Amino acid sequence: MKLEGIRVVDLSQFLPGPHFTMMMADHGAEVIRVESSAGEPTREIGARQGNASVWFRNTHRGKKSVVLDLKRKEGVAAFLRLATSADVIVESFRPGVVERLGIGYSQVSALHPGIVYASIAAYGQTGPMAQRPAHDLSIQAESGLVSLNRGSDGRPALPGIPAADMAGSLMAMNGVLMALLRRASTGKGDYLDISMQDCLQSWLVNVVGPVFAEDRDLVLANERGFGGNAFYNIYECADGQFLTLGGSEIKFATNLLTALDRTDLIALCRLPPGPGQLPVRDFLRQTFLLQPLAHWEVFLTPIDVCWAPVRGLHDALQRDQVLARNMRIEVEQSGFGGGKVTELGIPIQFKLEPGQVDPEIPELGEHTHAVLGALGLSSEEVVQASGLAPRAVQ
After folding, report:
1. What's the pTM value of the predicted model, to 2 decimals?
2. Which terminus of the chain has a lower count of CB atoms within 10 Å, N or C?
3. Domains in the chain, please, with CATH?
4. Is 118 helix (H, G, I), strand (E, B) or coil?
5. What average pLDDT does this structure show over 138-163?
């Protein structure tokens, strides 16, 4: 697999760091998850399948777990020894914490100039908000995303997905892989300052037009992606279910309006999003309300137009397309309670060296003795570094 031979030491928690290091594990990297004796918080958050939370299972498969007490000098010494054996380190503490602990980039790179060290923080390592605590919702709100996500009552609504977390995950992985590629020719690693806010705002390319070009905020009802375009919208059907039209190109408008015997409305679809398209939106709204979703699925299928029903998540994850792409998989796990479990698949699909899901997830501290012992620490030193009782060190 593409990342065989790469060792990653992951200090991060919750979603951005653990998610991207899991993707590296899926493609062959050895990922060592360094946890405190309290363990990764997501071990206990949310619904469980078998003996672990679904969240933890889908961010920690294929990893090893090492417990270290980084407030002890022995724990710091053990971490630095582990760091010198690694290619990548990932952390998500508040800015400055790793330096105070003695495990920051400056300390590690002095021992190992080739290290690629990624710090993921809500607002990055610099700027007036760097020390402010935040999870995904606060970052989305601060970045302007929540203001764009409004319910039918016009009030801001809770985002349905953790976009800031996932943007941070993907950008961090991109940066780490670029640094590893560069290191292959220079021998020198690098430090990545990943701000989840930066990453999320870089995704706004299709909505910042009014802000940059016209120095104004968005009027959502008139904007293309927020209801102003008749062919980029959500419509209710007669049975209370919904469908979406998701392609505003004039060819799609022509195809559907022709099928609905309203070619007179095609010219309005050439107008900018906003009031000019209101007659088209009203027609489509009234039309789709005439029949249940099942009728429209049959009607729309042969027409070349971008559309999709609004599916519940339970339904969506059982569709033939999802199963054909192996994005919902059933795996047999031998450890941590055993049994068959359901997981999300691997979205990066190589032809020659495909990734592989390792369904095993680590029990807390499961690999502490094996990993640290391989670095030359005695059993007593492992106990001192981990802070665990001798019988608890595995």
Report:
1. 0.92
2. N
3. 7-202+348-392 (3.40.50.10540), 216-315 (3.30.1540.10)
4. strand
5. 91
